[in-house]
Amino acid sequence: MGALYPFVRGDHPEADIIPKFETDMHSNELSLKREHQGRAKHAATTSIPKMTTLNNVDCKFQFETLNEKDIAILKLGKLILGEKHQRNRKKSEIIILEGTRLIRDALKAGAEAECMCFCQPDVLNHLEEVQELLNKVKLYRVSPSTMKRFSDTVTPGGLLGVFRKPEQGEVVSPPKSLLPISLICDNLKDPGNAGTLLRTAAAVGCEFIFATEGCVNLWERKVLRSAMGAHFNIPIFTRVSWPQIGNYLGSETQILLANNYTALDIYMDTDQITQVLCAIQLFRISGEMPDQLNREKPLPTSRELTTGGDHGEDGMQRSDSENCYDVPLPVYNYSDTPLDLSEKGKLALVIGSEAAGLSPQAKQFASEHNGVYVTIPMNETTNSLNSAIAGSIILYELRKKLLAQT
């Protein structure tokens, strides 16, 4: 009997070993279809025999081989493919992990697997470290064409797992030590950047991760792959409002806004900040520069300006959050940022979208929580850093300062 699968012992389980096997399987499927056409009355009961070995390679796990027409694979496909759609993902109670390493790390962390799919049994031998855990999971062998349909990668790794999605703020495997640092993803759109930031936050020892409404779904497959298991080591709160974030963090948390501003040695107290903001608002209404105003006449308050009809260029009423675009918060180099390192002091770093930057709501939140802008010095030929890189640099600087205090 010829080899059914071009597998060589020692090959990496995620190598591109599917195409030839898919050709063989396709030929087998065509033969089955011809047989079904000749025996229509028995078509409903025809199935591929169950197998436990392949190419004389022992498999230590019990699994079931599913045919394309099996009801079980139709239900499985509905479950997995339904998670891929954005509108279903927000309500989904499952997450999809791909690749032996990510699945092995998830099982070791204590994540609950509902079932797994694979193309050939040899890939399961790379999970011997978690064999006891895997014995409790339903294992299904599917065709390469089915795996490609289930996967969202160009070259599927040959192993896909369906896991229970942790609840809001649930930590599957809590770390032994944490630092009073939280990460806030403000309308972050790129899955790769989000996953890298999650991975860095877990490595730093952050307490919480928050994702505002409009941010990329932190539980989608690309984010999960990029984070490399960090999701199971840190509390994650998704689709939260800024008031909700404030309730979690408390009023004593210092907010740090990552930005590409230039740090200046200019300091203002809150009264001076209010005066500058009011002058800007008054200029929008009257068209007069602050220097042209009668200095003996006090500037109107922010409330007076707002109720008096502070409008934007489009004639629409400007909200308080929009006015916070103009709040001149202090700007510091990341290594010189003054931090509240008291016993009750906590820190929260806000990372915005690379395309849109920080939202006005984030700036308003920072203005209410002793907020400052944090910047990273760059060569004059560069105007910005990748958000994940910038966030990682600042997070590790915060970690260094907090550990130096203890």
Descriptors:
single chain; 60s Ribosomal Protein L30, Chain: A; 3 domains; seven-stranded parallel β-sheet; 12 strands; 35% helix; elongated; disordered N terminus
Produce a short descriptive summary.
This protein is of the alpha/beta class and 406 residues long. The chain has 14 helices and 12 strands. It has 3 domains: 121 residues, 60s Ribosomal Protein L30, Chain: A (2-Layer Sandwich), CATH 3.30.1330.30; 162 residues, Alpha/beta knot; 57 residues, no CATH class.
Topology, element by element:
Layout: H1 19-38, E1 64-65, H2 71-84, H3 86-89, E2 94-98, H4 100-109, E3 113-118, H5 131-134, E4 138-141, H6 144-150, E5 159-164, E6 181-186, H7 191-204, E7 208-212, H8 221-227, E8 236-240, H9 242-249, E9 253-258, H10 270-286, H11 302-307, H12 320-323, E10 331-333, E11 346-352, H13 360-367, E12 372-375, H14 387-405
Parallel strand pairs: 1-4, 3-4, 6-7, 6-11, 7-8, 9-11, 9-12, 10-12
Antiparallel strand pairs: 2-5, 3-5
Helix pairs in contact: 7-8, 7-14
